[in-house]
Amino acid sequence: MKFVAFERKLQGTGASRRLRISGKVPGIVFGAGEPTMIELDHNALYFALKKEAFHSSILDMELNGQDSKVLLRAVQYHPFKPQVLHVDFQRVDNTTKITKKVPLHFIGEAESVAVKTDKCTVSHIVTELEITCVAVELPEFIEVDLSGLTKGHSVHVNDIKLPAGVKVVTHGKPNPVIATPVEPKVEEIVVAAAPAAAPAKGKGKGKK
């Protein structure tokens, strides 16, 4: 994805406030040299941020007529307005090593034995993974095939086929669960017992 940024001359709280009033978003680009203060069109950025790829892929930034590769690093939103307040990007090249979270795309769930035959539902324990790789090898997403899922067996990190050069950061957990089948709940039908009939009067007693 490509976007256009403009160099920001004025800095400070007042300058940033005026930028936002004029429909711009202040930002910064760091890494591989001196940080550069930038500004972007708010509406264009706001709608770009709604796209998954803008968060998890290498972006082409045009600045002063020159293109460079950058990665979105942080976004600050207004607490209750649909407004972007600030954005951070990192310059990357063919040798930049990065650590970043990428989304998981689950496929084959409906065709699995667990769902199709055993009527299980699938719980997605995590929907993104933190990975390390060279920036140019950053995948937009990681695909998780659930077509082989069976009742009683979960899919773990080690079951995922990762792109070349990509490693998962598990923070000490050896093989975390990614998705697991959940068996359907069996409803118990409780039948109320009929009350015992009261003994007939005089039954079992002799005549007077």
UniProtKB/TrEMBL annotation:
What SUPFAM superfamilies does this protein map onto? Ribosomal protein L25-like (SSF50715)
InterPro entries given for it? Rbsml_bL25/Gln-tRNA_synth_N, Ribosomal_bL25/Gln-tRNA_synth, Ribosomal_bL25_b-dom, Ribosomal_bL25_C, Ribosomal_bL25_long, Ribosomal_L25_dom, Ribosomal_uL5_bac-type
- rRNA-binding as UniProt keyword: yes
Per its record, what are the GO molecular function terms? 5S rRNA binding; structural constituent of ribosome
* Biological processes per GO annotation: translation
* UniProt KW keywords: Ribonucleoprotein, Ribosomal protein, RNA-binding, rRNA-binding
State a GO cellular component annotated for this protein: cytosolic large ribosomal subunit
List each copy of the Large ribosomal subunit protein bL25 beta domain by range: 97-184
Any Pfam family the entry gives:
Ribosomal_L25p
From the UniProt annotation, give the residues forming the signal peptide.
none
> Which residues belong to any copy of the Large ribosomal subunit protein bL25 L25 domain?
5-89
- Is the Ribosomal protein keyword given for this protein? yes
Q: Which family does it belong to?
A: Belongs to the bacterial ribosomal protein bL25 family. CTC subfamily.
Q: How does it assemble?
A: Part of the 50S ribosomal subunit; part of the 5S rRNA/L5/L18/L25 subcomplex. Contacts the 5S rRNA. Binds to the 5S rRNA independently of L5 and L18.
Q: What does this protein do?
A: This is one of the proteins that binds to the 5S RNA in the ribosome where it forms part of the central protuberance.
Q: Which NCBIfam families match?
A: bL25_bact_ctc, PRK05618.1-5, PRK05943.1
> What is this protein's name?
Large ribosomal subunit protein bL25
Organism, by scientific name, is Inhella inkyongensis
Q: What is the lineage of its organism?
A: Bacteria, Pseudomonadati, Pseudomonadota, Betaproteobacteria, Burkholderiales
Q: Which gene encodes it?
A: rplY
